[in-house]
Amino acid sequence: MKTIVLLRHGESVWNKENRFTGWTDVDLTDEGIKEAVNAGKVLKESGFIFDYGYTSLLKRAIKTHNIVLDTMDLDWVQTEKCWKLNEKHYGALQGLNKSETAKKYGEDQVLIWRRSYDVAAPALDKDDPRNPVFDIRYKAISPDILPLTESLKDTYQRTVPYWKEIIGLTEENQKILVTAHGNSLRSIIKFIKHISDEEILNLNIPTGIPYVFEFTDDDELIRDFFLGDESEIEKNLEAIKSQGLIK
Predict the structure, then answer these.
(1) Is 35 a catalytic residue?
(2) 59-71 and 30-45 are packed helices; what angle lies between their axes, rounded to 10 degrees?
(3) b/e string for 155-170 if b means 16 or more Cβ within 10 A?
(4) For 162, which DSSP code?
(5) What is the mean pLDDT of residues 224-243?
(6) Shortest CA distance to 58 belongs to which of 26, 14, 95?
(7) Pairing mode of beta strands 211-215, 2-8
(8) 122 phi and psi, to 5 degrees?
(9) What is the pLDDT of residues 150-188, one digit of tens each?
(10) What does the buried/exposed string (b/e) look like for 15-53 if buried means 16 or more CB atoms within 10 Å of the residue's CB?
(11) Across residues 66-87, what is the average pLDDT?
(12) Taking the CB of residue 92, how many other CB atoms lie within 10 A of it?
C-alpha cells in the first residue's frame, strides 16, 4: 500500500482578509503557522514518516510544507517544487474581497468563479504587472502556457498530468506529502475520486488539515479521510463556504 497526504496550506493573509488570492504570493498568518504546526503534530502522532514531498512555487504552501516537516523532525525529506501545483489563477479578481465582489456581481456568480469546473474569472490584461511572465520564478516556463486566468478545468489540465507522471508514480509502501492549494488539490481529488463536473462545486478543502489517501500498488483508491478533530474540520469547512456570501 502507498499513502499520499494532500495538505492545503495554512491560513494566509488574504484568506484572513477574505480576498481572492490565486498566484499572488501572500504569506501565512500567525494562525496559518499554528495550523501547519498542528498538522505536523497530528501526522507525527499518527506515525507518518514521509519519503518525499511536493509543493508549489508559492510561499504559503512552501512555508506550510517546511513547518510540517520541521515539526515532524523530517527536515531532511527531499521536496520538489513545481508551478503546476500553484493555486488556480483568479485573473483580475486577485486582491478583491470576496464578499464585496458578491455584492457587486451576486453570490451565485462568485460561487461559480470560485467553485465551478469550467468558468474562469475575468482575465488579466497582458501588460498587467500581475501577469506571471513578469515574475522571475516563472522565467523558464514558456509564456504561452502561463495563465492570465484559469477555470478549475484549466487547473486540472496542469495538475493531473503532473500527478500521473510524477506524484502518482510513488513506489510500494512509500508515503508522500503534497502541500498545495484549495483548487489545485480540488482538481487532483476530482481525478482520484472520479467526481463529476457538477459535483465538484460542492467540494471544499480546509486549510491545514491533512487529507490522507491510501492506494493499492495498482493505484486503486482504498480509502480517504481527513486527519484531525472532526469539529475543527467542520468549522473550517463552514468558514470556507461562507467566504463568497454578502456580509
Answers:
(1) no
(2) 40
(3) bbebbbebbeeebbeb
(4) H
(5) 80
(6) 26
(7) antiparallel
(8) -55, 140
(9) 999 999 999 999 999 999 878 888 999 999 999 999 999
(10) beebbbbbbbebebbeebbebbbbbbebbeeeebebbbb
(11) 98
(12) 17
Nine-digit cell string for 55: 509543493
Q: Which residues contact 45 (CB under 8 A, 6 or more apart)?
A: none
Encoded amino acid at 205, one letter: I
Return the percentage of the chain with pLDDT > 90, whole number.
85
Residue 247 has pLDDT above 70, yes or no: no
| Cα 163 from Cα 80, distance rounded (Å) | 13
Given a cut of 80, whether residue 87 has pLDDT beyond it is yes
9 classed as catalytic: yes
User: Do 57 and 158 form a contact (C-beta atoms < 8 A)?
Assistant: no
Give mean pLDDT, residues 91-102.
Answer: 96
DSSP for 14-27, written as a single string: HHHTTB--TT--PP
The predicted-structure confidence for 129-156, as pLDDT tens digits, reads as follows 999 999 999 999 999 999 999 999 999 9
Residue of 11, 35, 65, 87 with catalytic role: 87
Mean pLDDT across the chain: 94
In 3D, which of 117, 156, 130 has the Cα closest to residue 22? 130
Q: Which residues are CB-contacts of 150 (< 8 A; sequence separation ≥ 6)?
A: 88, 89, 90, 91, 120
